[in-house]
């Protein structure tokens, strides 16, 4: 797989309805850094997966998609995305910005942003997003 194919597979496993921690473990570098302002900075696949699982317990229909094709150059892949979900699960308390959504609030969220992925030897070394 080339870098763009790796990122497409990884993005699908992380952010779409087809969430798949096994793919994250397969494609994330053991020292990978994953950062989004809304969620914080995570080191390694397991820390990242724990955040994603927690987020999905609050927003069970969470789904994101690429707006355009990702762009690949050397060790970098960049893409624009959008998506969201409806808060139908447990209370959401993990935002670094504070604020709490009580259990099953029905609040709809929508995000758009850009993410820069860096790869090394076929693994995601960093995923830095701006929402």
Computed structural class: alpha+beta
User: Which sequence of SSEs, written as H and E, runs from N to C?
Assistant: HHEEHEEEEE
Content of β-strand: 35-45%
What share of residues is helical? 25-40%
Quick recap of the structure?
The protein has 131 residues and is α+β, with helices and mostly antiparallel strands. The protein is built from three helices and seven strands; from the N terminus they run H-H-E-E-H-E-E-E-E-E.
Break the fold down into its secondary structure elements and pairings:
Elements: H1 3-15, H2 21-27, E1 28-36, E2 40-43, H3 45-58, E3 63-66, E4 71-73, E5 76-86, E6 108-120, E7 123-130
Features:
globular; 131 residues; alpha+beta; Nuclear Transport Factor 2, Chain: A
Write up what this structure looks like:
The protein starts with a helix and ends with a strand. The chain is built from 3 helices and 7 strands; from the N terminus they run H-H-E-E-H-E-E-E-E-E. The protein is globular and about 45 Å long. Strand 6 and strand 7 form a beta hairpin. The model has no long low-confidence stretch (mean pLDDT 93). With 131 residues, the protein is an alpha+beta fold.
